[in-house]
Amino acid sequence: MANAASGMAVHDDCKLRFLDLKTKRTFRFVVFKIEEKLKQVMVEKLGEPAESYDDFAACLPADECRYAVYDYEFLTPENVPKSRIFFVAWSPDTARVRSKMIYASSKDRFKRELDGIQIELQATDPTEMGLDVFKSRAN
Questions:
Q1: Minimal CA–CA distance to 54: which of 128, 126, 139?
Q2: What is the C-alpha to C-alpha distance for residues 135 and 39, in angstroms, rounded to an integer?
Q3: GO: which molecular function terms (predicted)?
Q4: Partners of 124 in the β-ladder
Q5: What distance in Å separates the CA atoms of residue 9 and residue 136, rounded to the nearest whole number?
Q6: Residue 58, Cβ neighbours under 10 Å: how many?
Q7: In terms of CB atoms within 10 Å, which of 2, 20, 103, 125 comes out highest?
Q8: Where are the domains of the chain?
Q9: What are the phi and psi torsion angles at 17 (to 5°)?
Q10: What is the CATH code for 9-138?
Q11: What does 42-66 look like in DSSP terms, one character per residue?
Q12: DSSP E strands: which ranges in the chain?
């Protein structure tokens, strides 16, 4: 079903990989890319459970927009292990204006397809989605 605002459909694989991350913890992160020619959101990269935050950040191109989900694990002040699923809307200042508009207009509908997102981050440069940001938002 295409998004009325941007005409972007969501590939079934996006929802399946997100469910794998959320329920089975098969992945640490999933990076999604809008294929403009296909008018569809697709899975671009899957991060293995052993991959780190730095591996995740390295997957986001410096001059192109992406969506991503990241399973952030942390310890509470009481030393209880927890995790939060973050949705990251990556829209660097150097990306094409058309691309930023398409990602912005498709975001809400795409996010609704991924049931279980706990925290959303908008980021235009790496400092806006650093580990310190994840940590402060997770608690």
A1: 126
A2: 34
A3: actin binding
A4: none
A5: 33
A6: 12
A7: 103
A8: 9-138
A9: -65, -35
A10: 3.40.20.10
A11: EEEEEE-TT--HHHHHHTS-TTS-E
A12: 9-10, 29-35, 40-47, 66-75, 81-90, 119-123
